[in-house]
Amino acid sequence: MSRLLLKGGRVVDPAQGIDATLDVLIAEETIEEVGPRLQARGAQVLDLKGLVVCPGFVDVHTHLREPGREDKETIATGTRAAAAGGFTAVCAMPNTEPVNDNAGITLSILEKARAEGAVRVYPIGAITRGSRGEELAEYGDLREAGCVAVSDDGRPVASARVMRRALEYATAFDLVVIDHCEEPTLSERACMNEGPVSTILGLRGAPAAGEAIMVERDVLLAELTGGRVHIAHISTAASVDAVRRGKARGVGVTAEATPHHLFLTDEAVRETGYDTSTKMNPPLRSEADRQALVAAVQDGTVDCIATDHAPHTVDDKKVEYDQAAFGIVGLETAVALCLDRLLGAGLLELPHLVALLSTNPAKVLGLPGGTLAAGAPADVTVLDLGKKRQVDPKHFESKGRNTPFGGWILKGWPAMTLVGGRIAWKDPRFRA
Ligand SMILES: [Zn+2]
Ligand SMILES: [Zn+2]
Description:
Elements: E1 3-13, E2 18-27, E3 30-35, E4 44-47, E5 52-55, E6 57-62, H1 75-84, E7 87-92, H2 103-116, E8 120-123, H3 139-145, E9 149-151, H4 160-172, E10 176-179, E11 192-193, H5 196-201, E12 205-206, H6 208-225, E13 229-231, H7 237-248, E14 253-257, H8 259-263, H9 267-271, H10 287-298, E15 304-305, H11 314-317, H12 334-343, H13 350-365, E16 380-390, E17 409-419, E18 422-426
Parallel strand pairs: 1-4, 1-5, 6-7, 7-8, 9-10, 10-13, 11-12, 13-14, 14-15
Antiparallel strand pairs: 1-2, 2-3, 5-16, 16-17, 17-18
């Protein structure tokens, strides 16, 4: 039996309340034991002194683009980007071409991921057929084929009646409904946040209220149905307030925030001179929204940090601002941004950050992992908190180069990712 001993790292596993210098023994694909000074007993030893050893990070919101838009990203390149960014699993949004709204597509994604994926891939099925917002997809088939949630991400579920039925139907199969919250009649042809900056720039804006209206609706519908709703890429003060009040009443609601909404505002559109890598949906919001989002991460209203990794070709982005595609890549910058801007800035303790990136994502979607407990899959993210490096999109594993963070110097980076006990990626300068 092949064994691997991760020696002398700072082990941070919020699921077990562990934050201490310990060894982790891996047998084949599984965590065998975590403890002080474990004997190697023939295991291969990796010296991780000075590094942090965490349960593998899980991105609950990734666009892998395959099938259909392999010019933007493939399962192979997207999962390599995940591994290089410190993620051992990604949840793949269904807005591919065709949309992942049936078991056949789910199974083909999983087959491709097994053959070519660098990390685990958990498909998310569509809420409605073709994500058209009308008839519900077959959730039983999707669940059986391997989908871990349903979402029409990229589009809101405009009809409250459809959302209600989705929540009722999903509950029967223990699926979470992930909603992209946007009142579509308030955001027609919008390309940034509505506010003073959009007025100055002469760009059409989407008001923050358009998101919060749908978050309020979803919280109320989750309460009505007893279903579970997960709010994707939450971005406004009023939205987090709605989630906070829902949680206080015991409603089945959870939420994720992206690094770009935590660390940038709509001022970035002006400061970069209409750089289309500041264009995404939901848009970068005001400073007051950003601060409310950070506070919501700190107080636990936000459960997960997710990337909304949305790779595009140069041609999709190298056009007038209002014509450019929405979205930015995130897998290779998210962890470093959080380590620098949340941990480094003293806004969050490391165990809380690991919970946001691993423990909670696994719990919200009911995935294996999210812990280093004995018997868990040997998915491990190793961090180097002292490493300082500049973000260089030229070296991304992703096909996408559309990031507003190019040139940022960040302290704290992933050093290695292990998936099922095997090294999926390591920093080329890593000594082990
Ligand atoms: Zn979305
Ligand atoms: Zn998305």
